[in-house]
Specification:
It is built from ten helices and eleven strands. The protein has helices spanning about 10-20, 50-55, 65-75, 95-105, 115-125, 170-175, 190-195, 235-245, 260-275, 285-290; strands at about 10, 25-30, 40, 50, 85-90, 110-115, 165, 180-185, 220, 250-255, 280. About 30% of the residues lie in helices and about 15% in strands. By secondary structure, it is an alpha/beta fold. The protein starts with 8 loop residues before the first strand and ends in a 10-residue tail after the last helix. It folds into two domains: about 10-125, 3-Layer(aba) Sandwich (Oxidized Rhodanese, domain 1); about 165-290, Rhodanese-like domain (Oxidized Rhodanese, domain 1). The chain has a six-stranded mixed sheet, sandwiched between helices. Strands 7-11-10-8-9 form a five-stranded parallel sheet.
Length: about 300
Amino acid sequence: MTSVSTTTIVDVAWLRDAISASPSDVAVIEVTGDESHDGGAGVIPGSRSIHWKPLLWHDTRRELATARTLAGRLRDLGVGADTEVVLAGAPTQFAAYAIWVATVAGVADRLHYLDGGLAAWSAAGFGETSRAVLPAASTPPASTPPVSTLPAPTRPTPSHPRPSVVIDRAGVENAIGSASTGIVDLRSPQEFSGQRVSPETEIIDHGAQRHGRIPGARALHVAELLDDDTRILPVDQLRERVRAADLDSATDLVFYCRLSHRAALGWLIFDEVLGDSRVRVYDGSWTEWGSVVGAPIEL
């Protein structure tokens, strides 16, 4: 399967070649769900690994980092003024969330999303520790996904803050029952149906006080947009998924999940791959909605 490649999204073969050709010009940051990761060496050669929360949230408040704060944290992770930054998620949605936060803040220029994250890197056989020897660019291993036929990534134009890609709880409340706005739940079928409040990968079912979904929400599990190595599906298959979810008729789309990581990945796919700018991400997602006194739910 051909991997997606755009100005923002790069595949593992592109990253391998970039590291091999000029390692000082690219900074790889692995954004993980492991709270023990504090900026030390990661899996990909030369990378740094950090938990998503100290990178992307305010130190004490439940809100997104400002542009100044995020830029400083990236600098502390080795990002220079002219460095191309590749964000690799473990799992992959954490990198998409980082791209979304940076887009909201207005510091997304020179940031790239590694398609499939660490799962795709490992599946390609490119090494399991930061001390691994990279395969020569001319002789990739047999499991390497084919390089995209799309143009190689170029440096995006400087970004500006895009608060329009965020929606808060009041906005979601106003969207319920709207004929023009589609509310889309990107959680798993178990979460959507109310069996769980967190993905099955979580040992403890936690993240909200109540089970259920936002009234009127349509189901589009983010896994339906990815292949087995968590890489983004080709455009024609993505469009099929959008049609199946009955999203074509909506003027605006509100995406949510549990903490907005998977919703941010959905936003990235729609915005960057499909060229669909209808999406706003509910930053509080089910963690907020499912815990607010009086918020309506549907089972």
